[in-house]
Structure formats: structure tokens, C-alpha cells
Amino acid sequence: MSAEPHYTLYHPRWYRRRVSVWWWLQKRSYTGFVLRELTSIFVAFFAVVYLWQLRALTQGPEAYEQFLARLATPLFLALDTVAFLFVLFHAITWFNLTPKAMVVRWRGKRVPDWLILGLNYAAWLVLSGAVAFVLLRE
Amino acid sequence: MERITPLLWLLFSAGGTVAALLFPVHFFLTGLAFPLGWLEAPSYEFLHRLLTHPLTRLYLFSLISLPLFHWAHRFRYTLYDGLQLKHLTVLIAVLCYGAALAGTAMAAYLLWGIS
Questions:
Q1: What is the average pLDDT value for chain B, to the nearest integer?
Q2: Shortest CB distance from A47 goes to which of B64, B78, B81?
Q3: Class of domain A1-85
Q4: Residue B35 DSSP class
Q5: CB pair distance less than 8 Å for B30 and A51
Q6: What residue spans define the domains of chain A?
Q7: Which of the given ranges, A33-42, A107-116, B18-27, has the highest pLDDT on average?
Q8: Which residue of A1, A67, A107, B24 is 20 to 30 Å from A88, comparing CA positions?
Q9: Do the chains contact at A83 and B27, CB–CB below 8 Å?
Q10: Which residues from chain A sit within 8 angstroms of residue B27, using beta carbons?
Q11: Smallest Cα–Cα separation from A95: which of A71, A64, A127?
């Protein structure tokens, strides 16, 4: 990445224009791609929130109350809203990719995309219901 | 690096699936519905009792660790492509997977210590 062009003995370096760091704003599909890639940050953010909650639970009731109070501050509510939307975007793009990434055969025939998609979304629904059921059972 | 690439990709893919299936509901409840008072947050006693079950611990361990590896793998390439940092390959890989390992170790430590 030196500013000076670098020449070798045998042939000159080809001239290449440097691509802007904002290349992905020029086209919608590129923007979608980069937004999808950025979902990973919010996935990690949520893993950290859960680690934080776990730590509070090991420390006792007051730490847990503090954790709950902190999540109710405007900063965290704003952050969590954005993060939730990104996590949803991750889930939807992830499910929609599965039929392309995973070709399943059943009795010599390729399982149609809509079936794999449908199973994904069904599993999503069932698991979400199960988690909500357990957490709200009290 | 080349030799463990399939393993890293497997973790990326497993973590992506876990995050896709389970993060929206957890996030909706913990991050929005409970703090905004739409639904009542579970009490300390209830969650603590839940955590004494080995299955809950295994669940939480996977729920935290796998998506962290998903992040590490994807974010690595985000940095390469988005910020054009190809020349820092090794440093970025060490930082990303290192952070995921640290989070995994912390989850294991916390879950192990619950009495």
C-alpha cells in the first residue's frame, strides 16, 4: 500500500484505480450484501448481552435487578431496537439462503426449495414459541 | 490456518443457524418486551432455578458460543472487503477468533460456577 508505484524488473505493475471504501453504496444489491455482512456485529452484541445477564445471575438478585434496569435505559432500548432489526434481517437472509447452500435429495429427487424454506420457517416458529413458553411460564 | 478452515466454516454455519432460529425471540423478549413492560421479566429465582438444570446450561453455552464464532468468521471478511484490510489478515483472524474463544471460555466459566 505504498504511495509510490512499485516496479519489478520484468514488467511494470498494472495500473489499478483504488476502489472507494463506500463502493457498496452505489448499487442496492451491494448495499444489501454489506448490510447482511454487518448483521454479524449485532449477533455478537446479543451474545455479549446474554453473557452479561448470565454473569448477573451468578452474582445474585441485586445484580440481576441492575441488569434489568440497565436494559430499560433509552440508550439500550435504542441499541436493542436496531440490533433486533439486524438480527431479524440475519434470520431471514439466512433461511432464504439455505436451499441454495444445501441441496437435499430424497429418493433420488431434489427436495424443492419451497419445502426446505417452509421447514426452516416452521422450525423458527416452533422454537420461538418454545423459548417464549419456557421464559414466560412463571 | 488452511487446515482448520473447514472447522471454522462449520462453526460459522452452525452459529448462523443458531442465531437465525433463536436470537430473534430471545432478543425480542430480553431486549424489548421485558424492558418496555409489554411482558413481565422472569424473576431471579425462576431463572436461577432454570439454570441449575444441565440442559439449560448446555443450551445457553451453545446459544452464546456458536454465534460468537459465526460473528468471528463473518466479521473477518467484512473487515477485509469493507475496509480493504487484506494486508492485516493474520492480525484480524487472531483478534476475531480470539474474541470468540474468550467469550466461549467466559460462558463455560460462568455456567460451570453456578451452584
A1: 91
A2: B64
A3: mainly alpha
A4: T
A5: no
A6: 1-85
A7: B18-27
A8: A67
A9: yes
A10: 46, 80, 83-84, 87
A11: A127
